[in-house]
Amino acid sequence: MTLTDETGPQTQQGTPLDPEHLFARHFARFTGETLTGLQERFRDEHIVPLRGFCPPELLRPLQDEAAGIMDGHGVDRKFSFDITDGTPRQMTTVGQPVIKEHGRLIHATYFSPAVKELLGQVVGEEVFTCPYAGEHYVISRLGKNGDTHGWHWDDYTYGFILVLQAPDYRDGGFVQAVPHTSWDKQNPDVHGALLKSQVRSYAFEAGDAYVVKTDTTMHRVYPIRGETSRTIVNMTWASGADLDRDITHETNDVLFGGVGA
């Protein structure tokens, strides 16, 4: 249980929550054979679940923080993007500038050295803070029947998604991924990618997370149905090679407002 005042979430003893301490202690679960299994699975599938990623003491404060930001600043979006072969986006979103101002715990999670180290270990190379601030972290909620984040790739190499709210898989909201594919922005071919590679599906619970090699893994969130919700924080990480590439941010700027939200 946590308390809250002007300075943000606190422990029962009245001291501010220290996400870095909680992450560093909690990540002992992702060592040894467990870490080796995660590394092998990521090499094979280009996506890997991190079950129970969030320290229990931090989950409810993160949920409350994200819900407050979403309720106060969320914008309903409904688009289809030619750049991803006409696939749909129907969701409520909040972009990085608003979260930076109101989301101390989300910001601390993204800039956590312990999180950065664990992600680098899982993917097999050092990861870097995204050069484009608008991609650091965004919140999205699927909360209406039919809401979905349709098939797409991302601009930077790695996506890290923290699941704060998830429906039962029978109500949709699970993740599907097609690894070993590529995004040609001038000639996107979602159906060709579906035919060329195996589609894998992953259901998650609140507190789980997953890492995706998003530049070579076409992925989507299956549409939700009924009275349910899925809320996540999406965080983008760059590879060393990304730092030398000229990368654009079309879909991020439309869906989340970029750095000018």
Please sum up the structure shown.
This protein has 261 residues and is of the alpha+beta class. Helix content is 30%, strand content 27%.
Describe the structure.
- The protein contains 8 helices and 14 strands.
- The chain is α+β, with helices and mostly antiparallel strands.
- The strands form 2 sheets. Strands 3, 4, 5, 6, 7, 8, 9, 10, 11, 12, 13 and 14 form a 12-stranded antiparallel beta sheet that branches. Strands 1-2 form a two-stranded antiparallel ribbon.
- It is globular, with a radius of gyration of 17 Å.
- The two termini are 33 Å apart.
- The mean pLDDT is 93.
- The protein has one domain: Sandwich (Jelly Rolls).
Highlighted features:
two-stranded antiparallel ribbon, single chain, 12-stranded antiparallel sheet, 261 residues, 30% helix, 8 helices, 14 strands, Jelly Rolls, alpha+beta
